[in-house]
Amino acid sequence: MIKNLKKYFSLYGAMFKASVIADLEYRANFFTRIATDILWYIAQIMTFEVLYQHTERIGDWDKYQMRVFLGLLFIIDALYMIVIHENLENITEKVRKGDLDLLLAKPVNSQFMLTLQKANTAIFGNLILALSWFFYALTGLPDFNYERLLWMLILIPCSLAVIYSIRFMFSATAVIFTRSENLQFLWWQIYKLGMRPDSMYTPYIKFAVLTVLPVGVIVSVPARALLNPPELSYLLWPLVLAPILIYGTHRFWNYALKFYSSASS
Amino acid sequence: MALYSVKTMKYVIETQDLTRVYKSYQKPEGLKNSIKGIWERKYDTKVALDKTTIKIESGKIIGLVGANGAGKTTLLKILSGLVVPSSGSATVLGYKPWERNNEYLRQMSILLGQKNQLWWDISPVDSYALLARIYDLNVAKTRQRVDELATMLDCKHVLNTQLRRLSLGERMKMEIIGALLHEPRILFLDEPTIGLDIVAQENIRNFLSNYVKEKGPTVILTSHYMDDIATLADSLLLISKGNIVYQGTVDEFTNNTNSELAHDEKVDFEEVIRRFLETESRVR
Amino acid sequence: MKKSFAVFLKRNLAFANLAIVTNLEYRLNYFIDAFVQPILTTGIEVLLWIAVFKGAQSETIAGFAKDSYLSYALWSAFFARIATSWMYEARMIEEVSSGSINSIIVRPMTFYEYYLSQFMGYKIITTLLSLTVPLVAAWYFDLPTIYSRIPLALLLCFYFLILVHTISFIISTFAFHYTKISSITAAKNLLFWILMGELFPLDLLPEPYKTIFITAPFASGTFVPVGYIIGRVEIDTVYTGFISVTISLIVLNLLGAYLWRKGLDSYVGTGA
């Protein structure tokens, strides 16, 4: 068991290194990624800044707290983009071209390879931008207790696990349906639900985004850890949810593979 | 778990009534029918493999020949564990391939001629380093092995160039090295020389011949180039419309078919296969 | 002249037909694109507006009541989705970067035309089908909507689509020179969503931004047509929209033609 874990850790290290080498080939990409994500950050920030011109609070939070929320969103999203995103985006392509074959013929867990094979190291620039905004936003909060940031060490990995699980379920349907570009766009809409604070939603919906379709857990829970007085039931929930979801992806992947008919050559 | 020791296995590959059926949507013509197709769909079933029973001995090179769509690739994919059969059974090295047992996968290798398993943006040696970890290989030994294979294939000078900058022939050689890194006991080669020039083809053929003599893996090879089959294959497996229509040696086949078709002249293997495939396509 | 126009028309109708037929083949995807997406987007925006009004101190924001904003959220989700190009832009970029445009440029039709017709064909049929959703919702929930204004609003939006296609075309010419252009699409669409008024009605912006955004051509993708339908914007703004889009079309088509020529010249036939 330990030997296995060691193997997968070292394999991930090797794949990450290979990703850096591959990404260095496209130096221009680093800058285009930053440029494009800046636009996204501006879009999010602008929306709320304009809305706060006409109202004092949205959900539980005021303008300054919302900026922190957005900062967390940017950080978590950047981490997701670096480690996971490119791989899941390419599942549809891999299935269509039949590249999945070569993965399945290897003596390693195919879900592991499919999920983590390529890291998008160009996004590091965005991560730095995200961190900058986040810390800037923190300075806007009166009496912020910086020790609270320790919660991020457990909550952010849980958030990544949640994004991964949900996105993976969407992407893995490509193995069953073969062409699902639009399904991927659907994922983006659902992810958007998680990009707003859960306190903004009506009670039933709030419950839904924290449990059934837990995108609300991704940013709102870590944000609460920083902005609201501690509510343990909220803060420990991701720790329960994440392993359940990951196990769910494992079962779903095995199920989806039964449908895999391997594109003709 | 293997059922019995590989060394004492006479037949490394055995199948019994192996069948694979595919369902595909029969798309009608025109706009009107497409709209109808939203709620009403007709499906076509295609039998890719029809009750195939074969036995393959250890250490042999088997040439798998047939027209396009005859079932060659389906058979390969089932035996390599990529596709689950609709019915029937198959064992390779004592394992059910589609269970994709890691122990089995470590001893097996598949080369799909038109696809790359190596990373596009990095050099082959970097890809090999990754493969070594995937197969749990000793790093130093692997490097040695890469050297050996690259020398045999005469491509040492491009080992450190990114894959996307190499020519098709060079890329193919790199893929072959990648497929042999872990010293597989079973090798499935699907059109390994497709698209290559004559020199590269010969190169690879010679390499494969020498490699098999030295290391003794069992190889199933498909190819549309009859020279590949004629020079390399110990036995021939002819497949037509999902059925095995011939199992035997290349020479036997040439002589038998020659006499059946009642020709006097000595005809070479390629010609015989061509006539065989022509007959097949007429019958379709 | 007449004959070649007839040929041109026939050819492009065939492309539009092709687009419709290929897309209907993938039922699930089509259903999601035409219905599920806009419904979800509307839902998300509606929730946001309810929350905004809850936190606000008054019954109106910038002179309009909550119902007006909900109506805006409904119609803007729908219009913004029509006015956005994902699939066809991605295909155009892919064609140029992979070199498979070889098969198009050796035939008597232009790359621009080929994709414009497919794009418009797809958008028209998708609009007709998905139009039912906001129509039914607006009627059922009694949201402020002036139904007689819808045709003109749609016309403006479709006119804007030609501009969208031109921009996609320009982006695909970059693929002649750079790799991984596809990452631009998502960001560009995000930028457009703000400029079009998908995230919030553009008249909520403080001056001078408000005037700038509203007179820019992008507003004709969502804010102007939707604002016109719900009575937030009047006919003179619609006229401004048409003029703005026309000017942009002229400028960008000239630019596009130039970039295409330049790209083709430096084009090394990579893989057929």
Number of strands of chain B: 9
Radius of gyration of chain A from CA coordinates? 19 Å
Tell me the domain tally of chain B.
1
Number of helices of chain A: 12
Mean of all residue-level pLDDT scores of chain B:
83
Query: End-to-end distance of chain B, in Å?
Result: 42 Å
Query: What oligomeric state do the depicted chains represent?
Result: heterotrimer
**What is the 3D form of chain B?**
globular
* Total domain units of chain A: 1
- Give the N-terminus to C-terminus distance of chain A in angstroms: 38 Å
Major beta sheet of chain B, specifics?
A: 6 strands, mixed
> Structural class from helices and strands of chain A?
mainly alpha
What's the CATH topology name of chain B? Answer: Rossmann fold
User: Which percent range describes the beta-strand content of chain A?
Assistant: under 5%
The stretches of 5 or more residues of chain A where confidence is low (pLDDT under 50) are none
Q: Helical content of chain B, roughly?
A: 25-40%
What descriptors fit this protein?
heterotrimer, A: 265 residues, mainly alpha, B: 284 residues, alpha/beta, Rossmann fold, six-stranded mixed beta sheet, three-stranded antiparallel beta sheet, 9 strands, 24% strand, disordered N terminus
Write up this protein.
The complex is a heterotrimer of chains A (265), B (284) and C (272). Chain A is mainly α and 265 residues long. Helix content of chain A is 75%, strand content 0%. Chain A has one domain. In chain B, the strands form 2 sheets. Chain B has a 6-stranded mixed beta sheet, sandwiched between helices. Chain C is mainly α. Helix content of chain C is 73%, strand content 1%. Chain C has 12 helices and 2 strands, in the order ααββαααααααααα. A two-stranded antiparallel sheet of chain C has the order 1-2. The longest helix of chain C has 31 residues. Chains in contact: A-B, A-C, B-C. Chains A and C meet through α2 and α9 of A and α2 and α9 of C.
What's the SSE blueprint?
The complex is a heterotrimer of chains A (265), B (284) and C (272).
Chain A: H1 2-24, H2 27-52, H3 63-89, H4 91-97, H5 100-104, H6 110-116, H7 124-139, H8 151-177, H9 181-194, H10 203-210, H11 216-227, H12 232-257
Helix pairs in contact in A: 2-3, 2-7, 3-7, 3-8, 3-11, 8-9, 8-11, 8-12
Chain B: E1 11-25, H1 30-36, E2 43-57, E3 61-65, H2 72-79, E4 87-92, H3 102-107, E5 108-112, H4 124-134, H5 139-153, H6 168-180, E6 186-190, H7 198-215, E7 218-222, H8 226-232, E8 235-240, E9 243-249, H9 250-260, H10 269-283
Parallel strand pairs in B: 3-7, 3-8, 5-6, 6-7
Antiparallel strand pairs in B: 1-2, 1-4, 8-9
Helix pairs in contact in B: 4-5, 5-6, 9-10
Chain C: H1 2-24, H2 27-55, E1 60-61, E2 64-65, H3 66-82, H4 87-98, H5 102-105, H6 111-130, H7 132-140, H8 150-174, H9 183-196, H10 209-215, H11 223-230, H12 235-265
Antiparallel strand pairs in C: 1-2
